Amino acid sequence: NYDAWFVGFTPQYVGAIWIGNDINIELTQGSTASSRLFSKIMKQVCAGIPSGSFPSASENIIRIAIDSKSGMLPSELSGLDPRGTVINEYFIKGTEPIVVDNIHVLADICNDSGYLATPECTSVSSRLGIKRPYDISNVGDMNYELPHYYCNIHNSNPEIYPINPDGVASDFAGPAVGGDNPTGKPDKPGKPGKPGKTTEPAVDDGSTIPDWLNP
Questions:
Q1: CB distance 8 to 42 below 8 Å
Q2: Predicted TM-score (pTM) of this structure
Q3: What residues have CB less than 8 Å from 168, skipping those under 6 apart?
Q4: Spacing of C-alpha 54 from chain mean position
Q5: Pairing with 156, which of 10, 67, 87, 174 sits 20 to 30 Å away (CA)?
């Protein structure tokens, strides 16, 4: 952690705090320290100023729920992500997303290896993960990325079901949907939303300022 940022605003002022240095010395605290400093400074800046309120959003501003991982409208699978990846965001009318999230997917995972299940796997779960349309190697939620390889324990045909050439254990942490199934037959969860489908977003009129925007 080499940079600690905090940006905030009141009805009168906007302020930004950066804590860091130019020789890459690691910090012992992050944005919490910046937010405390911001609070101290703004209390002095705003001392003696009558309290104010934020004006209502203009008519061309709308607030809708999106999937924070894809930037698309949330699917039913988005709502199953235990990390709470569905958030509300503001958009200028006409710029909001209209396509449903398609990177939250279900996959059959071998409970023994943590990799994609082969027909030989005897204990399988339908588990939720992220499948991005591009290769990744170092992101914060890498353990939610669906495995790219198949089970290396129950696999007599790695030519059809490729295994990880590095031989490392899977650290996939995506949650099971519907529970484990020791029969080897994947669970059948309820139908998710249709990924990639164009739809009308649920729109908030934007007249209510959320709590986290209040000074």
A1: yes
A2: 0.64
A3: none
A4: 29
A5: 174
| pLDDT: which is higher, 182 or 155 | 155
Q: Cα(126)–Cα(77) distance, rounded to whole angstroms?
A: 12
Which residue reads 């170092």 in tokens? Answer: 138
Q: Say how many C-beta atoms besides its own lie within 10 A of residue 15's C-beta.
A: 14
Percent of the chain residues topping a pLDDT of 90: 63
Residue 24 has pLDDT above 80, yes or no: yes
203, pLDDT greater than 70: no
The helix (run of H) or strand (run of E) holding residue 43 is helix 31-45
Q: State residue 185's pLDDT score.
A: 41
Asked whether the CA dihedral 24, 28, 31, 34 is positive or negative, the reply is negative
Please, is 211 exposed, middle or buried when counting C-beta atoms within 10 Å of its C-beta (0-12, 13-18, 19+)?
exposed
